[in-house]
Amino acid sequence: MNTSYFLGWCFFRALFKLYFRWRVYNPERVPQSGPVILAANHTSFIDPPLVGAGLKRDINYLARESLFRFPVMGAVLRSWNSVPVDREGGGAAGLKKILDRLLAGGAIILFPEGTRSHDGKLQPARSGIGLTVIKSDALVIPVRVFGTYEAYGRHHRLPRPRRIAVKYGEPMRFEALRAEAKSCSKTRLKEIYQQVADEIMAAIAKLGPFEDKSGFP
After folding, report:
1. Is the Cβ–Cβ distance between 165 and 24 less than 8 Å?
2. Strands 139-146 vs 165-168: parallel, antiparallel or unpaired
3. Is residue 157 included in any domain, yes or no?
């Protein structure tokens, strides 16, 4: 971790501990080195730092390209390993940047649902993450966040002190589908992308539910 990333990492860990009383489950399932895709459900703006703060390796994040136009913010985002992408994050340029980070041995957080949930429930996966998985050799770790919708969902103007948690699942490799994708038809290739996305989303769904027995609201 560079100095800026480390300071941000410490800040969010302290925030999550003191304000949200967070819990972290099975971070040891994420390798400390090598290319990794952290595929998480998405209900809040605090999901990316939550997923990253639970690990002791630096992570690459996606950020809207427009945010990099502001000098100070752009500098901070770059120091935090942020990857500039368009609004949807699915353009060819954005995909290349993501694959470059993975090729360099980095870990990156991706959201199979594509955008934040409107009701806190898991949404169907989009095929974009399947394309990224197939075109890379990265290990995939399903991740599930809990409580972030209640703490800072779309309908909240300010974060509320609700307990949050993050769970890291068992690694997924997709060797067979990657091998098939090298020689299959375009129609089948599209099916593979969606199949991978659906399998990842199913793995995320199996990481629950989280039960808060602490009595904290």
Report:
1. yes
2. antiparallel
3. yes
